[in-house]
Every structure is written in structure tokens, then in C-alpha cells.
Design goal:
This protein has 296 residues and is an alpha+beta fold. The protein folds into 2 domains: 156 residues, Ribosomal Protein S5, domain 2 (2-Layer Sandwich), CATH 3.30.230; 122 residues, Alpha-Beta Plaits. The chain has 10 helices and 11 strands.
Length: 296
């Protein structure tokens, strides 16, 4: 009979990019990035169970996602078990809330939650650095998803610096239904920079704004070099941005490689009105009102 030996709940927080810059291409073909990351209260929930029946089994609330080694959460469990020679079974259930393929690092965050959760359950065999080294094998954003909060991410995303917490505000996410492949977006970016002057973020100015807790400078400096590329593929991004601006957002930007657009508001009334507007449109399924998450 299958006996459950222990149970643990881990939260996987979504992230947005307050800025995203590409500095160049590395010899291995990866893009060298410099981005300011911020985690959100919006999260998936991972339930982990250790059982006396060997092997990893997974279930997921989203039937469109794989529940085998194609799922990053499953891969994270397999990697942890291989590394620490775990012979018991792992049962994991993923309750999905973060939109998939949205530029919100949902998969990376699920992987990070599994690593963090299993490390906790097994009495912390890995230090924070060792867990991050495991994480980067699963994806460039996983080390950040282990760290959370406000951070500068450099290299391919694995070089992380903790930043002063971004000023608290309301964050409205609006994701168009159409998706775009991350690989395609980076390829198109490489082509576009050959012919076009792309606006780059002033990352140092944003870092100063964070140090000073200066919300106005922060929201006016939001910038993502991939935004014009993804907007070329998903024109809804421009429509959503314009509406959010009209609805009084303090700052609006596409997150990651998109297509989710986020809008920051200091005013609760305004953000509620904007949310109510989008909930009456075709974008309702991709509309989420949330706020920044800062770890303790
Ligand atoms: P990023 O911002 O890091 O580019 P994303 O938010 O654009 O990530 P994800 O939601 O992580 O994208 O998913 C990208 C793809 O990865 C999906 O098409 C999905 O099939 C696959 N995938 C694997 N595991 C997961 C998971 N746990 N949650 C979501 N997608 C997953």
C-alpha cells in the first residue's frame, strides 16, 4: 500500500520585468541580458508529498500542460532526487494560476518552488547557492525564482543582485490570447537590431530610482527591448497598452518576451476601474489584478 510520509505546500510566484535589456550575444549563442525583476503575489501552488512508493508522479489543474518530464516542475523533482539520491517516491500536484507562455516565468517559478519545497522537506541538503546551481540547469530564470523580490539579473539571468524593494503599488496584468514563441522573438530581435534603432532602458537610472524609493522615476523609465518585436507579432499588445494608458496607469510595459502587458497604478480606484473595463472585453480570461511580492 502507498503510504504518505510527509506533505508540504510551496508557492510559485509570477514575475515581471521592470526593465529588460539585451547587451549582446555570447559565444554560446545565448543572449546577455540585464533586467530588473519583480515578483508578484499572483502564484501557482505546488503540493509535494513524499511516499514510500518509488518514482515521481504528477497531476496538474491545467489539462493542457504535460505531467511528465516535459513539465519543469516534474524535471525539478527528478533533478533534486537524482542529485541527493532520494529513493522514496514524490507525488506532486500543481495548481496553475499563472497564465502559461505569458512572459511571467510560470514554469521556471514552478520548478523553483519544487526545488525549494523538496530542499525544505529533506532538511536542507542544498545551500542557497547549490539550489541556484541546480536551478540554472532547468532554466535561466529559475535562480531568480528561487530568490524572489526585486533583483537585478545579468549574464543569461543567473547573475543576481538583491535590490531595494520596489515601491508598493497595484499591478494589473492583461494577456492577449495570441501567444508568441520566445525563440522566435529572440531571433526576430537579432534581425531587427540590424536595421532599427531600438530604445534601450536606462537601467542605472532605474537602479537609482529603486535606491531612492522614487516611484515616479521608476514608472516613467519602464522599458523592454523585446516589446517592439513581440508587438510586431501580436498587435493586441499595442491596443492593450493604449487602453491602459487611457485608463490612467502610471506606467505600462510588456513583461519578458510577452505577450502579457502589466500596468502599475498607485491609485486603487483607478486600477479597479481598469480591471472592470478589461473584465468586460475579450481580454477577460487574461486579466489579473495583483501587487508586488517581497520575501521576508
Ligand atoms: P518566461 O517568462 O520564462 O519566458 P513564460 O511565462 O513565457 O516563461 P511558461 O509559462 O513558463 O512561459 O511556459 C512556457 C512553455 O513551457 C509552455 O508552452 C509549456 O508547455 C511549458 N511548460 C513546462 N512546464 C510548465 C509549467 N510548470 N507551467 C507552465 N508551462 C510549462
Amino acid at each position: 500500500m502507498n503510504a504518505i510520509l510527509s506533505t508540504h505546500t510551496a508557492y510559485a510566484y509570477a514575475k515581471i520585468n521592470l526593465s529588460l535589456d539585451i547587451l549582446g550575444t555570447l559565444p554560446n549563442g545565448y543572449h546577455e541580458v540585464r533586467m530588473i525583476m519583480q515578483s508578484l503575489q499572483l502564484h501557482d501552488t505546488v503540493t509535494l508529498k513524499i511516499s514510500d512508493t518509488p518514482g515521481i508522479t504528477m497531476t496538474c489543474s491545467d489539462a493542457s500542460l504535460p505531467v511528465d518530464e516535459h513539465n519543469l516542475a516534474y524535471r525539478a523533482a527528478a533533478l533534486f532526487c537524482d542529485t541527493y539520491h532520494i529513493s522514496e517516491g514524490i507525488e506532486l500536484h500543481l495548481e496553475k494560476k499563472i497564465p502559461v507562455a505569458a512572459g511571467l516565468a510560470g514554469g521556471s517559478s514552478d520548478a523553483a518552488a519544487v526545488l525549494r519545497g523538496l530542499n525544505e522537506m529533506y532538511g536542507k541538503p542544498a545551500t542557497a547557492d547549490e539550489l541556484a546551481a541546480l536551478g540554472v540547469k532547468l532554466g535561466a530564470d529559475v535562480p531568480y525564482c528561487l530568490m524572489l523580490g526585486t533583483a537585478l539579473s545579468e549574464g543569461i539571468g543567473e547573475r543576481l543582485t538583491v535590490l531595494p524593494a520596489a515601491p508598493d503599488c497595484h499591478c494589473l496584468l492583461v494577456k492577449p490570447a495570441a501567444g508568441a514563441s520566445t525563440k522566435q522573438i529572440y531571433t526576430d530581435y537579432d534581425a531587427l537590431v540590424q536595421t532599427t534603432d531600438i530604445k534601450h532602458p536606462d537601467t542605472d537610472a532605474l537602479l537609482s530610482a529603486l535606491s531612492a524609493g522614487d516611484y515616479n522615476t521608476l514608472v516613467s523609465g519602464l522599458c523592454n527591448v523585446l516589446e517592439p518585436v513581440t508587438t510586431g507579432l501580436v498587435p493586441d499588445i499595442a491596443v492593450i497598452k493604449e487602453r491602459l494608458q487611457t485608463l490612467g496607469a502610471d506606467g505600462v510595459l510588456m513583461s519578458g518576451s510577452g505577450p502579457t502587458v502589466f500596468a502599475l497604478f498607485s491609485d486603487l480606484e483607478k486600477v479597479k476601474r481598469a480591471e472592470a473595463h478589461f473584465l468586460q472585453t475579450e481580454y477577460a480570461p487574461g486579466t489579473f489584478l495583483t501587487s508586488f511580492y517581497q520575501p521576508e
